[in-house]
Design brief:
- The chain is of the alpha/beta class.
- The protein has a single domain, classed as Rossmann fold, CATH 3.40.50.
- The strands form two sheets. An eight-stranded mixed beta sheet has the order 3-4-6-5-7-8-9-10, sandwiched between helices. It has a two-stranded antiparallel ribbon with strand order 1-2.
- Strand 1 and strand 2 form a beta hairpin.
- The longest helix is centred in the last third of the chain and has 19 residues.
Length: 305
């Protein structure tokens, strides 16, 4: 992986840092492209697509759609080990630059916070619809992933558009948006989300709060919630109560898959030891491969000589 500085005037590149490639990984066998699509309200959103050079739109490529969309955080190109493994196995990895992030300035951030938070979810859903419309994949072959605020995003995808996705990986999430501010440090996020203690803000929080939109009789995609007992940022109650409610509401569906992974020796994720990171990635991507039908095959990305 290489990080470059791009000069705004003229576009000249200067190499900033170069990291050694994972053993055997051939970067020339990977395609990274940036595209754009229209969200629900017509806003143009950019998205990065990563796949093997020999993988093309077939209408059935197992796809991971990852997102965050909040707190003015920019999702810029970077090396992600789990994404590399997914792509090497023949899947597509997609990363849209959702509103709420900082990729296009403070206005982009503001358009995805407080009463405009639904824009983030609409951007995410439109990204999935675009991948289907352009022939990459189909509903049921798309898995969504996200953690923390990104867990709120995937929780909204689960409850708002269950028919569009085949798997949901929802890590250390915020899911009860009417009570979130009462736990741990979440009161410091009121400026981003709002608070249900205000009548007007209650109205738009209630409109998207994932926990409050779980319904009986809905065919939900397979979901894996994760949390950690030592999480000092997002209270584990979110994942626990959401998993319990979803299990109860889908109890009559023999095909329902609702899993909860609890780590007893970890926190929100920052500073997690390497062995636990490996365990997390193995669980995440094996779950996605199982539910999305990814069958790893011999690849030109790895030189196995």
């Amino acid at each position: 992986p290489i990080a470059y500085v791009v000069h705004a005037r003229g576009g000249a590149l200067r190499e900033l840092v170069r990291l050694p490639a994972p053993v055997g990984l051939d970067p020339d066998a990977i395609v990274v492209e940036q595209t754009t699509y229209a969200s629900k309200d017509g806003t143009e959103v950019s998205m990065f697509l990563v796949h093997r050079r020999d993988v093309s739109p077939t209408g059935a490529v197992p796809t991971v759609l990852n997102g965050y969309g909040g707190f003015n955080i920019s999702r810029t190109p970077q090396y992600i080990a789990g994404a590399a493994a997914w792509v090497e196995a023949g899947g597509l990895f997609a990363l849209p630059n959702l509103r709420g992030g900082g990729e296009y300035g403070e206005r982009w951030h503001q358009d995805g916070m407080l009463e405009r938070k639904q824009n983030v979810f609409d951007d995410f859903h439109a990204a999935a619809e675009t991948l289907v419309a352009r022939g990459w994949t189909r509903p049921g072959r798309i898995g969504v992933t996200g953690g923390s605020n990104g867990g709120l995003l995937t929780g909204a995808a689960l409850t708002q558009r269950p028919e569009l996705f085949g798997a949901v990986y929802c890590a250390v999430p915020l899911l009860d948006m009417l009570r979130y501010q009462n736990f741990l440090i979440a009161r410091f996020w009121i400026s981003e989300y709002g608070t249900a203690e205000d009548r007007e803000q209650y109205r738009w929080l209630r409109a998207y709060s994932p926990y409050h939109h779980v319904r009986e009789g809905i065919r939900y995609p397979a979901v894996l919630f994760t949390t950690a007992v030592g999480d000092s940022r997002v209270d584990p109650m979110h994942a626990r109560k959401m998993a319990a409610l979803l299990q109860a509401q889908t109890a009559e569906d023999p095909d329902a898959t609702v899993l909860l992974r609890v780590d007893h020796d970890a926190g929100h994720g920052i500073g997690k030891p390497l062995d636990k990171q490996v365990d997390d990635l193995a669980d995440q991507y094996s779950f996605l491969a199982w539910r999305l039908g990814l069958q790893p095959a011999a690849s030109a990305m790895l030189d196995r000589r």
